[in-house]
Structure formats: C-alpha cells, structure tokens
Write a structure and sequence with these properties.
Length: about 260
C-alpha cells in the first residue's frame, strides 16, 4: 500500500513539501528525548523525526488505514498507537517528560492545546502546525483583536513563537485556509499565585463576553471586582494582569 486517500472527517491534509516537513522537524529543539507525534498520517514528518538519533519517537494516529501504512513503511518505528489523542491517557505511556509535534488536525487543534495544558508539567516543548488564525490567536498579546482564551492560558505556562506561515498549496488536498507553525516552550512558572482551575475559569468567563467590562462579565464569579480591573475589557489585560486579578478575586471570595 503506498497511498492513503485523505479523509475529510479526520481533518486529513497531507503535507507534500519535503523542505517544509524538514523545517518543521528541525524546529524541535535538541534538548529532548521522548517525542510524541500527533496525527502522523502517512509519515511525512515521521521520516525526518526518525533520522534524529537523539529522539525516541512515539506516534498516535486515529486512522487505521494510516496506521497500517506506517507499520508497512516504517518497520523500525516501534511505538505506533492506533488511538484518538483526545481520549488516550498519553501521559501514562511515558515515564517522564515528552515533547509534542504534529501537523495537527485543524478541526480539533484547540482541544489538542487544552489537553496539552493539562499535561503541561510533563510537556516541555510543542511544535505544531495549525490553521494560521489559530497560530496568531495563540501567539497574540493583549491589545490585539486575536487575543483570547487560548492566548492567555497557554502564555501563562509557555513562551510562544510564531515560526512561519505555510501556503495551502503544499497540502493534498489543499485546505481552505493558510497554515502556520508555532513553537511552545514551557516557562519557569510551576504554580500560579492563584488556583490554576479558577484562573482558567476567570479567563473563560471574561472572554465569553469579550465586549463587556470585568465588573459585568465576571458577575457570576464574584460580586465585587478589584477597582483597577473593573472597567477593563478582557483584551486590555495582559497575562500577568489576569493572574493578579484572579489572585485578588480569590482573596475577596475567601473573606
Ligand atoms: N502529519 C501528516 C498528516 C496531517 S493531517 C502530514 O503532515 O501529512 C492530520 C492527521 O491527524 C491525520 O492523519 C488524521 O488521521 C490524524 N487525526 C485526526 N484526528 C486525530 C485524533 N483525534 N487523534 C490522533 N490523530 C488524529
């Protein structure tokens, strides 16, 4: 078997440009060992990952046909998991930390990042290709209209770099949108000065009504919002502001 017919329902857009594939794999730093590739498909990134001797590669792929293709074409690849990344207890398969790479299925890319966040203390680095808009959103700073939930909660724990844009023409079949590759490196923050879960809740609640000021959007969370944040809208608050605001609100609620 040397061909897998792309399945739209699984977000399959196979990368056809070898130089870009190599560039994505080269974006993964050298200070790593265990690596998980999400959605290898027919292995365009896998082949270059296997060429890096320092990497111990594991791949997870939902599509049985692609899995069969990988077994046939990469017999040296021992760890091929035929599973759904979103449902699999992937962190239990690794003894220590593991980095993540992939040309992610775009229909579930946000969910992939939310799951990575839950495993953040085990995942030092992520190199992912996603829809360009999603990459911009994740990397954007406060003050930008792209700034949102994923930007704030990912940036609280990761340093994020927008690496490069990729044209729709280098995929089969070409997606409707441009793509981009981003890199996330775990920062030094081990524990926020507030509850992590409450922080996520505050950020989500604020952005769910993004045109409202904090005093209105966060009513369901706390009756009284600290004065300096009360008349701000979520895109005006930096990641540090969100953390500090959550800490203050938490103290108010505890009283
Ligand atoms: N890496 C390949 C394929 C990218 S397309 C390339 O660059 O050419 C996205 C891949 O993710 C597809 O192979 C698809 O089958 C796989 N996929 C989709 N949903 C998945 C899930 N929930 N878990 C694991 N893999 C998934």
């Amino acid at each position: 078997m040397n061909f897998v017919k792309p399945k739209k329902s699984l977000g399959q857009h196979f990368l056809t440009d070898q130089n870009i594939a190599r560039k994505i794999v080269d974006s993964l730093g050298t200070e790593i060992r265990d690596v998980l590739e999400i959605g290898p498909g027919t292995g365009v990134l896998t082949q270059y990952l296997l060429q890096r001797p320092e990497i111990n590669l594991h791949v997870i792929e939902i599509d049985r046909e692609s899995v069969a293709y990988l077994h046939q074409n990469f017999p040296q690849l021992e760890n091929i998991w035929s599973e759904d990344f979103l449902k699999s207890p992937v962190d239990e398969k690794f003894a220590g930390s593991f980095s993540v790479i992939g040309n992610f299925p775009y229909n579930i890319s946000s969910q992939i990042f939310f799951k990575i966040l839950l495993m953040r203390n085990r995942v030092p680095q992520v190199v992912g290709m996603v829809q360009k808009e999603v990459a911009e959103r994740i990397a954007s700073k406060h003050g930008s209209k792209n700034y949102g939930i994923l930007s704030v909660i990912l940036q609280a724990f990761y340093d994020i770099e927008y690496l490069f844009t990729v044209s729709e023409q280098v995929f089969f079949p070409p997606p409707k949108v441009k793509s981009a590759v981003i890199r996330l490196k775990r920062n030094q923050v081990e524990k926020l000065p507030c509850s992590d879960d409450f922080f996520v809740k505050v950020v989500k609640t604020a952005f769910n009504q993004r045109r409202k000021m904090m005093r209105n959007s966060l009513k369901s969370v706390c009756e009284e919002i600290p004065e300096i944040y009360a008349d701000k809208r979520p895109e005006q608050l930096s990641v540090t502001d969100f953390i500090e605001m959550t800490r203050l609100i938490e103290n108010l609620i505890k009283k």
